């Protein structure tokens, strides 16, 4: 091409980044790496290595160790040995180490960017301008948190040794998201990078040596899924933080159910990218390029479902096709390339298979005529139209450069389509009307919503999912809490095991010869008293064995009815916080009015002193949460862009509650009130020891303006009802505060829709001590943070 022709075509010439530094670093290690354990390199115990290669040309880059059970054990041991000294350091000392890590990564940023690109296949433009700068920002930001830890999180302690498992799409960034908050809060770490992309984690290990991080504070063990599994199962690990597929997330939930390991999961997504007719279409198309073709679409929060307002669908698709035709695919080290290589053959085959399946289901596939390199693993940017909302390509995460398009007419329809997914990681809304954009953003069930922008991340803004996209947040205050526990809770004693004598179900319809009944309660569903489906009740006896009354034996059907009623009570979530506060005050007032008779009845089950305390503290507790209802606010973050990020504490939805057996009334109120204050609706299983409290409570609820369905009460055998609640797909979270066995069961049963689980871990909570049983810790679990990013300025 002549200069004159080039001038007209305005084509970029190749601008390759020099990989020399990165390659000579690999050579310095003889292109063979062991694990980084206790501050030194150790050969894999079984002597097994696997290769990592450059997906853009298939060339072998290095061999890395396959981590065995023994390697994981050695790393966990090293992390334990390092723990006391690391925790004994002042926050300032830990802050200095994190600061040194940030500075040193910055110093090596070019080499790290190249290493990331050759190992993963992502364009150097992305690793150089996005991944590595965000890594650095993450360590700086958390150096600050380390310094401020004691001031900002009094009464909290680190979890201990943390196991972290990361994926291959943002290898060093995911490492930073995991290691920075863990160290800032005083934990030590064993991290397993993904098998396709271990190199930057190993370079980071060397940086830990360079800054003199105490040995054992960070340990890196490479390997495949089996290495990850060993880490998950290790008894010495106090918390697992995982990013990856929903399928593996489920396996980890199952594997950790019977332990006390804390768990945070950042899983898949199928995020909506909504464009309204009044949007600036050119900007929206540029946003879309970042939304779905960034990192070849191998992004958990990729805007993979394009929802277009019908009136603009045609011109918009034309613009998108034009723009797709100008995307440049090629060698990832070329600085003028937009689309790099797919990470591995397995992933490429998966993308091809899913697109073929989509076409077989009726989607129309369009790909621009752009040149793809003849060598290496490439897939062209792809547009699938004619996609039915329920089709596989509209529902399943493809994790490739593939956009599925659909249309909508009204904002309501856009929200319905957006939420028509099991996931809830992210969403984008494009509209020049701030009212429409924010109204829609507030209704999208996802942890982050970008308004007129896309794929922005910052260390100050928590990132994480709703629903099957996982739970827990990375970044920000909420991200730190994932690595901290209240000191009292960490030290709380195990609940004593109480022998429960199986009680015979009573069928008083068929047995009129039963003794006189003092009191019979009913179930409470949708604001109405209801008879149990089973027709059976259980007898309730006092501490002295005296027969106190009967409570219905709820079953699967009753729980299902209760969940349905809770779902229908959406007016509670929509009520203003002020209104919710007023209703809670009214409940307290009514409890106060009837306090004497309730305490008298409760005394038969728990003794007079406890009954009186439960009632008076119960009134106080309701007051507390009435106070909290309009004060548990979010935050406004100022990320280093021309944006604000509004961190909203959003309602979780419908929550199943299994009450404690220790304090039938106060336990019930301590769990239900924070959930109500935050706007959740509940299905509550009261204490099995004194379920008759239900009768008093529903009479109070009935007379306190609480909308029917906001609290539903199903009495019965905890173990049976817990199973139904925890397995129910329309229950969004489960709070389980009975015994240790129930806590394990709640976690194990919740894997289906990956609902959030909050339990007492079988530990004793003093419900009479407000420091333990009231306040922010409960409110944090009653809400989930959504960050809405809004740009300002030109
Ligand atoms: P994956 O979930 O299998 O791997 C992620 C990490 O978990 C890797 O380090 C892996 O070695 C480890 N791992 C695998 N099995 C494990 C187990 N049983 N216990 C503990 N750790 C285990 O993801 P994969 O196979 O690499 O990708 C498959 C699909 O997952 C992708 O096509 C994509 O749809 C999704 N994915 C989602 C990511 C996200 O950021 N949400 C990241 C990577 C993949």
Folded structure, characterized:
With 794 residues, this protein is of the alpha/beta class. 42% of the residues lie in helices and 18% in strands. A hairpin with a 6-residue loop joins strand 4 and strand 5. The structure holds 1,4-dihydronicotinamide adenine dinucleotide (NAI). The site of 1,4-dihydronicotinamide adenine dinucleotide has 26 residues, from helix 9, helix 10 and helix 13.
Question: Which descriptors would you attach to this protein?
Answer:
alpha/beta; six-stranded mixed beta sheet; 18% strand
- Whole-angstrom Rg: 28 Å
Largest sheet: 10 strands, mixed
Strand order of the biggest β-sheet? 14-15-16-13-12-17-18-32-26-25
- How large is the share of residues in beta strands? 15-25%
Bound small molecules, by name, code or SMILES, are: 1,4-dihydronicotinamide adenine dinucleotide
Helix content: 40-55%
**Structural class of the helix and strand makeup?**
alpha/beta
Q: Note the gap between the termini.
A: 38 Å
Give the overall average pLDDT.
95
Q: Flag low-confidence runs.
A: 508-512
Q: Outline, from the CA principal axes?
A: globular
Describe the structure in brief.
It is built from 29 helices and 32 strands.
Helices and strands in order:
Blueprint: H1 3-9, H2 20-28, E1 32-33, E2 35-37, E3 40-42, E4 49-53, E5 60-65, H3 69-88, H4 91-107, H5 109-120, H6 124-152, E6 156-158, E7 161-165, H7 171-184, E8 188-192, H8 199-211, E9 218-220, H9 225-233, E10 239-243, H10 246-256, E11 262-266, E12 272-275, H11 281-292, E13 305-309, H12 313-325, H13 345-360, E14 364-366, E15 382-385, H14 392-395, E16 402-408, H15 411-418, E17 426-430, H16 434-443, E18 448-451, E19 470-471, H17 476-481, E20 484-486, H18 487-490, E21 523-525, E22 528-530, E23 537-541, E24 547-552, H19 556-568, H20 571-574, H21 577-593, H22 595-606, H23 608-629, E25 635-637, E26 643-651, E27 654-658, H24 664-677, E28 681-685, H25 693-702, E29 711-713, H26 718-727, E30 733-736, H27 740-749, E31 756-759, H28 770-773, H29 776-782, E32 783-791
Parallel strand pairs: 1-5, 7-8, 7-10, 8-9, 10-11, 12-13, 12-17, 13-16, 15-16, 17-18, 18-32, 27-28, 27-30, 28-29, 30-31
Antiparallel strand pairs: 2-3, 4-5, 6-20, 11-19, 14-15, 21-22, 23-24, 25-26, 26-32
Helix pairs in contact: 4-6, 4-8, 5-6, 6-7, 11-12, 19-26, 21-23, 22-23, 23-24, 26-27
The protein binds 1,4-dihydronicotinamide adenine dinucleotide (NAI).
């Amino acid at each position: 091409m002549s200069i004159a022709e080039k001038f007209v075509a305005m084509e970029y010439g190749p601008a390759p980044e020099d990989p020399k530094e990165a390659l000579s670093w690999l050579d310095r290690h003889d292109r063979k790496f062991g694990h980084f354990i206790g501050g030194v390199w150790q050969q894999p115990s079984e002597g097994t290595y696997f290769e990592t290669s450059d997906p853009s040309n298939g060339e072998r880059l290095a061999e890395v160790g396959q981590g065995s059970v023994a390697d994981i054990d050695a790393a966990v041991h090293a992390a334990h040995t390092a723990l006391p000294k690391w925790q004994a350091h002042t926050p300032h000392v830990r802050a200095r180490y994190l600061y040194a890590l940030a500075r040193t990564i910055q110093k090596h940023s070019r080499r790290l960017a190249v290493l990331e690109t050759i190992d993963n296949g992502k364009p150097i433009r992305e690793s150089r301008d996005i991944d590595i700068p965000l890594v650095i920002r993450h360590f700086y930001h958390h150096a600050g948190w380390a310094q401020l830890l004691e001031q900002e999180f009094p009464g909290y302690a680190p979890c201990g040794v943390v196991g972290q498992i990361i994926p291959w799409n943002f290898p060093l960034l995911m490492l930073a998201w995991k290691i920075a908050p863990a160290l800032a809060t005083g934990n030590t770490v064993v991290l397993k990078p993904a098998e396709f992309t271990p190199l930057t984690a190993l370079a980071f290990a060397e940086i830990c040596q360079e800054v003199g991080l105490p040995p054992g504070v960070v340990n890196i063990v490479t390997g495949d899924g089996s290495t990850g599994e060993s880490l998950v199962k290790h008894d010495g690990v106090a918390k697992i933080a995982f990013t990856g597929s929903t399928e593996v997330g489920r396996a980890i939930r199952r594997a950790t159910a019977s332990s006390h390991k804390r768990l945070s999961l950042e899983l898949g997504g199928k995020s909506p990218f909504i464009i309204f007719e009044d949007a600036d279409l050119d900007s929206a198309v540029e946003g879309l390029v970042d939304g779905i073709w960034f990192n070849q679409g191998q992004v958990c929060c990729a805007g993979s479902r394009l929802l277009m307002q019908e009136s603009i669908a045609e011109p918009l698709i034309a613009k998108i096709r034009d723009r797709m035709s100008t995307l440049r695919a090629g060698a990832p080290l070329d600085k003028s390339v937009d689309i790099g290589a797919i990470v591995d053959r397995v992933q490429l085959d998966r993308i091809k298979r899913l697109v073929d399946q989509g076409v077989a289901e009726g989607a129309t596939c369009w790909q621009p005529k752009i040149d793809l390199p003849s060598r290496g693993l490439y897939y062209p940017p792809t547009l699938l139209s004619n996609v039915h909302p329920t089709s596989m390509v509209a529902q399943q995460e493809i994790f490739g450069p593939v956009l599925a398009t659909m249309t909508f007419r009204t904002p309501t329809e856009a929200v319905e389509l957006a939420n028509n997914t099991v996931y809830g990681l992210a969403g984008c809304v494009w509209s020049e009307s701030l009212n429409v954009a924010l109204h829609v953003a507030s209704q999208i069930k996802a942890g982050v919503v970008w308004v007129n922008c896309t794929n922005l991340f910052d260390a100050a803004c928590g990132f994480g999912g709703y629903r099957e996209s996982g739970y827990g947040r990375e970044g920000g205050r909420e991200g730190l809490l994932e690595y901290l526990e209240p000191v009292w809770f960490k030290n709380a004693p195990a609940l004593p095991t109480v022998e429960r004598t199986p009680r015979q179900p009573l069928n008083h319809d068929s047995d009129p010869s039963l003794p006189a009944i003092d009191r019979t309660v009913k179930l409470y569903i949708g604001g109405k008293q209801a008879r149990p489906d089973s027709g059976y009740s259980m007898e309730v006896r006092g501490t002295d064995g005296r027969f106190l009354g009967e409570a219905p034996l709820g079953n699967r059907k009753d729980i299902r009815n209760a969940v349905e009623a809770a779902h229908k009570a959406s007016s509670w979530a929509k009520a203003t916080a002020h209104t919710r506060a007023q209703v809670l005050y009214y409940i307290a007032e009514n409890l106060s009015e009837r306090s004497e008779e309730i305490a008298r009845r409760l005394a038969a089950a728990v003794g007079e002193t406890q009954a009186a305390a439960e009632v008076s503290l119960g009134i106080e507790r309701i007051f507390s949460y009435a106070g909290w209802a309009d004060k548990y606010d979010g935050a406004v973050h100022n990320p280093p862009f021309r944006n604000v990020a509004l961190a909203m504490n959003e309602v979780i939805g419908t929550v199943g509650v299994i009450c404690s057996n220790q304090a039938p009334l106060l336990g019930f109120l301590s769990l239900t009130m924070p959930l109500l204050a935050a706007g959740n609706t509940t299905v509550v299983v009261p204490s099995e020891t004194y379920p008759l409290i239900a009768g008093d409570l529903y009479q109070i609820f009935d007379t306190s303006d609480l909308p029917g369905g906001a609290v539903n009460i199903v009495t019965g055998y905890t173990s049976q009802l817990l199973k139904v609640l925890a397995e129910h797909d329309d229950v969004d979270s489960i709070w389980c505060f009975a015994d240790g066995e129930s806590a394990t069961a709640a976690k194990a049963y919740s894997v289906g829709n990956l609902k959030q689980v909050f339990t007492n871990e079988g530990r004793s909570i003093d419900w009479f001590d407000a420091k333990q049983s009231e306040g922010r810790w409960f409110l944090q679990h009653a809400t989930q943070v959504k960050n809405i990013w809004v740009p300002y300025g030109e």
